[in-house]
TrEMBL record:
It comes from the Bacteria. Residues 1-94 form the ABC transmembrane type-1 domain. Residues 142-376 form the ABC transporter domain. The keyword Membrane applies. Gene3D superfamilies: ABC transporter type 1, transmembrane domain (1.20.1560.10), P-loop containing nucleotide triphosphate hydrolases (3.40.50.300). GO terms for molecular function: ATP binding. InterPro entries: AAA+_ATPase (IPR003593), ABC1_TM_dom (IPR011527), ABC1_TM_sf (IPR036640), ABC_transporter-like_ATP-bd (IPR003439), ABC_transporter-like_CS (IPR017871), P-loop_NTPase (IPR027417), Type_1_exporter (IPR039421). This is ABC transporter ATP-binding protein. It comes from Streptococcus caprae. It is a multi-pass membrane protein. It holds the Pfam family ABC_membrane. It is found in: Cell membrane. PROSITE patterns: ABC_TM1F, ABC_TRANSPORTER_1, ABC_TRANSPORTER_2. Keywords: ATP-binding, Membrane, Nucleotide-binding, Transmembrane, Transmembrane helix.
C-alpha cells in the first residue's frame, strides 16, 4: 500500500466495509432485541382480549367459568412457546449461516485422481511402484519436461520448464517472490495439474500414480511450522505414525534437535500447546525437519526451511541437513544464497522461466544474475 501510494484508497474501502458492518450489526441487534418485547406485549394483549371476550360469553351464558379458565391457560401456554422460539431466533440464524458455509464445502468437487500405479512399502528398505504385475523400484528420479502452467487462464506462471533430478542430487531454486519456485514443487506433488508438458517419477507419469501414494514418497519442510497439541515425540512421529521411539530419537539427532529436547523438563514427553508456544522459532523448525527425517522419504522438498532460523542455528543444522539429504532427491528453495552454495544444480528463475543453471562456481564465473544476487548488486524481492 505504501509503495503504490494506496493508503487513502484502502482507508476509503475499509470505511465503507466498516459502515456496512456497523449497519448490519445495528439491524441485527435492533430486530433481535425488539422481538421479545413485541411478542410479550402481543401475548398480554391476546390474553386480555381473550379474557374480555370469554367474560362476555360467560355473562351471556354461552360459556362456563371452567371453560374460560382452561382456554386462558391454553392461550398462555401457546404464548410461552412463541416466546421461547423468539429467544432461539439468533441461534437459529447463526446456525443457518454456519450451515450455508458447511454446505458450500460439501458441494466442492473432490480431487480427480485417475492414477492406477500404487506404492508398495511392505519392504522397509525397498519400495516399489506397482502397476498390475509390473513392479518398478522407487528410486527418486524426477524429470520435468517442457512444463507450462497457469493458475488463471492466459496468465502463465511457468514457461517451458525443464528440470531433472536423481537420488543424491541437490537441486536449488532461487529467484524473486512470484518467480514460480514453490509452484514447481507443488506440481511435483500434484497439488495442481500442469497445462502442458510431462512430469515423471522413476519414468512413470505422475498422473498415472495415485496421489496419496505419490505424496507418501515426498516430505516437505515449509517456512511456517505447525505443531499440534501433544508431546514432542508425537509431533515428530506425525511424519510417520508407526515410527518407534528409537526412530523418533534418531530423526531428532539427525535434525540436531535432540540436544534442546533433552534439556526440556520432560524430554520427548514434554507437552506442546498453542502451536508450540514456549519454543523458539528455530526450535520449532528443527522439529519440522525431524518430522521430515522420520518419514524417510525418497524425495525431500525444503521450501525456505531455514529462513526463520538464525545464523548460529543454521550453522548447527547444516550438517544434519546434509545427512538428511544424503542419498535422496532434494529440492531446495532459499532466499539465503549461503544455504545453497553446495547445491549440485542451482536454477535461477525469473518470471516463470529458468534463466540460468549450474553450480555455484560456474554461475559465479558467468557474472550473470546469480553473480549479481550473490554479490549484492541486486536483491531478491
Amino acid at each position: 500500500m505504501k509503495v503504490f501510494n494506496h493508503e487513502k484508497k484502502v482507508l476509503t474501502e475499509f470505511e465503507a466495509l466498516n459502515n456496512d458492518l456497523r449497519e448490519a450489526a445495528n439491524n441485527a441487534q435492533f430486530y433481535s432485541n425488539i422481538m421479545m418485547p413485541t411478542l410479550g406485549t402481543l401475548s398480554y394483549v391476546n390474553y386480555a382480549l381473550t379474557a374480555a371476550a370469554g367474560g362476555f360469553l360467560v355473562i351471556a351464558g354461552r360459556m362456563d367459568i371452567g371453560g374460560l379458565a382452561a382456554f386462558l391457560q391454553y392461550s398462555r401456554t401457546f404464548n410461552q412457546s412463541l416466546a421461547q422460539i423468539s429467544q432461539q431466533t439468533n441461534t437459529l440464524l447463526s446456525a443457518m449461516a454456519g450451515a450455508e458455509r458447511i454446505f458450500n464445502i460439501l458441494a466442492e468437487s473432490p480431487e480427480i485422481d485417475q492414477g492406477q500405479v500404487t506404492l508398495d512399502r511392505s519392504d522397509a528398505k525397498e519400495w516399489y511402484w506397482v502397476n498390475g504385475k509390473n513392479r518398478v523400484p522407487v528410486v527418486g528420479n524426477i524429470k520435468l519436461e517442457n512444463i507450462n502452467f497457469s493458475y488463471v487462464d492466459n496468465n502463465p506462471i511457468l514457461k517451458n520448464i525443464d528440470v531433472w533430478a536423481e537420488p543424491g542430487l541437490k537441486v536449488a531454486f532461487v529467484g524473486a517472490t512470484g518467480a514460480g519456485k514453490t509452484t514447481i514443487t507443488n506440481l511435483i506433488n500434484r497439488f495442481y495439474e500442469i497445462n502442458s508438458g510431462q512430469i515423471t517419477f522413476d519414468g512413470i507419469n505422475v498422473r498415472d500414480i495415485k496421489k496419496d501414494d505419490l505424496r507418501k514418497t515426498i516430505s516437505i519442510v515449509l517456512q511456517d511450522t505447525h505443531l499440534f497439541t501433544g508431546s514432542i515425540a508425537d509431533n515428530i512421529r506425525y511424519g510417520r505414525l508407526n515410527a518407534t521411539d528409537d526412530e523418533v530419537i534418531k530423526a531428532a539427532k539427525l535434525a540436531k534437535a535432540h540436544g534442546f529436547i533433552k534439556r526440556l523438563p520432560h524430554g520427548y514427553q514434554t507437552e506442546l500447546t498453542g502451536d508450540g508456544e514456549g519454543l523458539s522459532q528455530g526450535q520449532r523448525q528443527l522439529l519440522a525437519i525431524a518430522r521430515a527425517a522420520v518419514a524417510n522419504p525418497k524425495v525431500l522438498i525444503l521450501d525456505e526451511a531455514t529462513s526463520s532460523i538464525d545464523s548460529h542455528t543454521e550453522a548447527l543444522i547444516s550438517k544434519g541437513m546434509d545427512q538428511l539429504m544424503y542419498g535422496r532427491t532434494s529440492f531446495v528453495i532459499a532466499h539465503r544464497l549461503s544455504t545453497i552454495r553446495n547445491a549440485d544444480v542451482i536454477m535461477v528463475m525469473d518470471h516463470g522461466q529458468i534463466i540460468e543453471r549450474g553450480n555455484h562456481d560456474s554461475l559465479m564465473e558467468k557474472h550473470g544474475t546469480y553473480y549479481k544476487l550473490y554479490t549484492g548488486q541486486i536483491e531478491l524481492d
